[in-house]
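Posted in: Structural Biology > Protein-Ligand Complexes

Title: Requesting predicted complex, flavin mononucleotide in pocket

I'd be grateful if someone could produce the 3D structure tokens for the following input. Sequence and ligand are given below.
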Amino acid sequence: MSIEFFTRLPLHGETQFLPGDPRNRGDWHSGSDSTGAVSNFAVGDHFTYIDYLGQIARAAEINGFGGALMVNAPSGEEPWTVCSLLARETRTLSYVTAFQPYHYTPWVAVQQAATYQRATGNRLVWNIINGGSDAVQRQVGDFSDHDERYARAIEFMDVVKGYWHSENFHYQGRFYQAEGGGLRGPQKKAELPLICTAGSSIAAREFAARHADFYLMRAEHPDEIRTLIADIRERALKHGRSNIRFGLSIDVITRETEAQALAEAKRFFDEGVAKGAVKAVAAHAGLRSARKLSYENEYAAKDETRPFDDFFIYPNVWAGFGYIGIPPGLALVGSYENVVARIREYNQLGIDLFFLAGYPHLEEAYRLGEHILPHFRGERAPLRRIDTQAPALRAAGG
Ligand SMILES: Cc1cc2nc3c(=O)[nH]c(=O)nc-3n(C[C@H](O)[C@H](O)[C@H](O)COP(=O)(O)O)c2cc1C
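-- Reply #1 --
Done. Output follows.
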């Protein structure tokens, strides 16, 4: 099977969950011990944190990444704005922008995306998120409950696809209505962004089954990934969709030798523990309330500080980042050779899109580009939609 690599852009600083860490660049770290390597707006030297993100994006495409994932959180830079700012600083990189249906009307999302796609040669990917935590939703003004948000998302994507593929789209739903309307003129040339989504609740899985091109996961033990993939595939088939694919987000700490990689992971771990970083539960605050992953349940149940080695849930798969509160929580830790082997293993389970990143993101984009990505040169395939739904929707849209 094919394989593709994206990276992540850190929209809320390099290591926000290790407060006071001087490697946290720009004004996402405001302590007096900042390295000052990336300036902040306040000092008036005309550079901002967005310039640093631009450097990472350039490094990513120069090193052969196909795209970059950006997380949407109330405590971070807004991703669609960021990718609009960076698109013309990069030539080939795709950007995965996350947003909630709550943030836009379907038409606004369609029109924005069409403009973006035409300007960038279709380099936009959507990650449709629905908020894991009611508390965080309410902070930003959304009082609908968890499952209702997913019901709204299903309609949202029905309407988006309707507007995209029809000039005269009609819809009467619980959340949205449309009487005519749709992309016209040159905007019809734009491609509908590829649709990603995540979430392990039943509602999230059903939304993915109906609408996602890619179902995204945080890394877990391979057995759990296998089970999750089988479940999503089965659900998608019930909606007549055999084309759903899978993406995995995982950090990487890799070095020439196993010992060097372990030493770097341990340094991170010891610093986190010394700073009193909150345990596994922290990784769930806000964004990920629905389900703790199995290893997190296990760690959260224990009060005492656990030793570094306890966090290997599988060879080279280390959950220590989750323990010290750095999302997505798992990292591949090991020599270049072993990390390549683990990626192949996940690839064989059915993952064909990997989101790989390390700290600091800029330097590690080079390391991954020089030592990991070249091993997959002949197997890479740029992302494309395998379309089975559009004709039916076109007919429905008139
Ligand atoms: C790869 C990946 C990326 C995600 N990106 C975001 C994001 O940008 N913003 C967000 O609020 N949640 C994000 N999430 C969280 C999920 O969208 C979802 O809200 C969470 O898993 C809980 O969903 P559930 O309650 O339906 O299980 C991401 C999850 C994964 C696996």
